[in-house]
Amino acid sequence: MRNARSLLGTVPFFAYVAIFLVVPTLVVVIGAFAGDGGFTTANLSALGDQYILAAFGRSIVLSAVTAAIGAVLGALLAYALVTARPGGVLRRVVTAASGVLAQFGGVTLAFAFLATIGLSGFVTVFLRDHLGIDIYAGGVWLFELPGLALVYTYFQIPLMVIVFLPALDGIRPQWREATESLGGSTRQYWTRVAGPLLAPAFLGSTLLLFANAFSAYATAAALVSQGNPIIPLQIRTALTSEVVLGQQNLGKAMALGMVVVVSVVMSLYALLQRRTARWLG
Asked: What is the mean pLDDT of residues 50-73?
């Protein structure tokens, strides 16, 4: 009875996970193999269609590019915070801002970019009227994958700061002092001591950024044109538009493909985090 009472506090958490994670995943998995006559693999076979493969490819490229840019810039910003005075105003402000901006997405973020650098955005108009610079001279790239990559990077960088900062805090000053006492240079310290220790954390954080971008939907739905749909938008089209006979569950099959990709990425992330915890935990 004592153990049962102690577990009551976890009931809301497991209920939340069951309702918003387990049940939707089961609906997707079951629906991906469901057809008019019962069990079928036709939905998964349709994933080999060219337009679906192209959508997956665009999503993977978009996620990889924004994850790489966000990881590098976010790691540099996190390192600058570590070198600042511990508990100082700068670190508190940047950390708090990163926590807010990492969650600043969806329609609000898309509108912010439209108002700033859209066709009639104040930055676009100022550059065109006062400096003679037309940022859309080569085409309206904001509503295509390059623009989406820019918008995604906006929340990828602060997310990297949040997830990578604890790893940098785990680097002990004594390790650098030991390297210097043995005649090692700064380059040797980073390539032979700090670099190998931070590599799993950096790669794991990059994978987390990849999964974050790969599963994002609202920002793309509000911004990108239909000419270059990524896989979340392709799923929306399959679920909301008129479907081909026999492909009613194609959207669920595409969603299952996304679940598989994210599961693989997050499994690798968990393995890297476990290795990071051995030294920096």
From this structure: 95
